[in-house]
Amino acid sequence: KSAYHRDTWAEIDLQAIKHNVVEMKNHLNNKEVFAVVKADAYGHGEKEVAEAALNAGASRLAVAVFDEALRLREHFPEVPILVMGWTAPQYVRLAAQNNITLTAFQTEWVNQAKSYLKGEPLSIHLKVDTGMGRIGIRSVEEAYDVIRACDNTSIKITGVFTHFATADESDLLYYQQQLGAFKQWLKQVKPHLPDDLTVHIGNSAAAMRFPDDMYDGVRFGISMYGLYPSPTVKGEQPIKLKPAFSLYSRLIHVKKVHKGDAISYGATYKAQDEEWIGTIPIGYGDGWIRKLQDFSALVDGNKCPIVGRICMDQSMIKLNRPYELGTKVTLIGEDQNAFVSMDDAAEHLETINYEIPCILGQRIPRFYIT
Ligand SMILES: Cc1ncc(COP(=O)(O)O)c(CNc2conc2O)c1O
Predict the structure, then answer these.
(1) Which residues, 6 or more positions from 237, have their beta carbon under 8 angstroms from its beta carbon?
(2) Which of 208, 130, 186 is nearest to 162 (CA)?
(3) Which of 64, 143, 249, 268 has the fewest CB atoms within 10 Å, counting from its CB?
């Protein structure tokens, strides 16, 4: 349960989510946009983001895990929902009863699945591995086996898809190889598949950079949240995105320390002079991990470095002057005309922006700006 009685919170701008969906739909001249809301909508809140994305023109929801699909089905009784990951065959009946589309790519899985179905129609999308090397069919022969296993069963192939490993990079060779492999695969397998198939191959990067390659729809994840998939794509600015996620806290303690005074565990930080130190109620117990030490937060538009070791529930920042208790601290987002972005935090942590909102835990309540 989120601690609502603590001055640390996230704000999710649903107008930004809608803006990004509309931008993508226009960019694709109205192909389908599947809102990828797995991992609690990349940490933004699955229900609220799904609703905003659907209102803005997304036509389907895509998740990674069957339980995410079951939860969303509670709120969205009619929307097509695709589970993009592997689901154990013993759950196919529950999937069929909830009209949830699963991903299939193994003949053995199909054979087991049909033994659990009692005639209910189960929708599946075939996953083709053209080079992501994670899950998926890797040859035409494999495809024939899987398709044959579905024959005369209640398992209906309603889509095929593949996933790109390098669509966000400057070197396009591997992307082109995957695209070529998929086209070749589809040309050979299509005659054995139903006509009204949904074909979708692109993530945010491919959809933004190569909209004409995109077949029927795109699986829109990171950029629906207003984040570019990589510095390369950010540099190209194929569409203008609005970041949705902001993270705030408030000063709960302010003190003046003298030269040589130590801050936090290990006494690793020593004040270099008389300094004003602020304490904020966020720590690695919230996913604000220890490696964020020396990253900066904004107070009154000023960059204030995180000094000393980050604790489980609290962190210290060096202030540019004394501030009142309760003064707002911007950890991610805009403060006056200064801005700390998800990309800044990712760069500091030597990771990608995707990871940051996902690791911010449920002790940080998410509030929604509609
Ligand atoms: C199969 C599949 N399709 C679409 C997306 C959306 O990609 P985007 O967020 O770049 O638009 C993902 C994201 N998968 C992951 C994102 O980060 N790690 C992943 O495995 C995915 O796994």
Answers:
(1) none
(2) 130
(3) 268
